[in-house]
Amino acid sequence: MVYWGKHRHVMGKGSEWWESVKIGGGAAPIETSEGWLLFYHGVSGTCNGFVYSIGGAILDIDNPSKVLYRCENFLLTPEEWYEERGFVPNVCFPCATIHDSESGKIALYYGCADSYVGLAFTKLDEIVEYIKAHSRVTEADTELEIR
To answer: Which residues contact 2 (CB under 8 A, 6 or more apart)?
Structure first.
């Protein structure tokens, strides 16, 4: 980063139920051979309040404001007691990742109901293939001209 500025639109809220209210950032992207792997959060509204789920996308390696793949399914949604019950119930919010490049393992630390910290594991090649296989990219994901 040269300096703060040259802001770019990356993604808009999704059409899928789990990200229909709003989306936002999460853990820092992970560089892969396919592009930047991004874990982000999506929010849906229910009669019992908001639900925060974790989604995944792959951004262009040279132009990270370009979305190459965006998983239509959530990767993680509140299902465990510590995700469903707490200060803000029904929250899975991606916070940080550790990527072991030798083994390909990824550890994802995430907020649970704003009361706990959760830890989930995956493998880089598996999550990238899953996102690519279940991808949908919409107009809301295309780079917008900045005036």
So the answer is: none
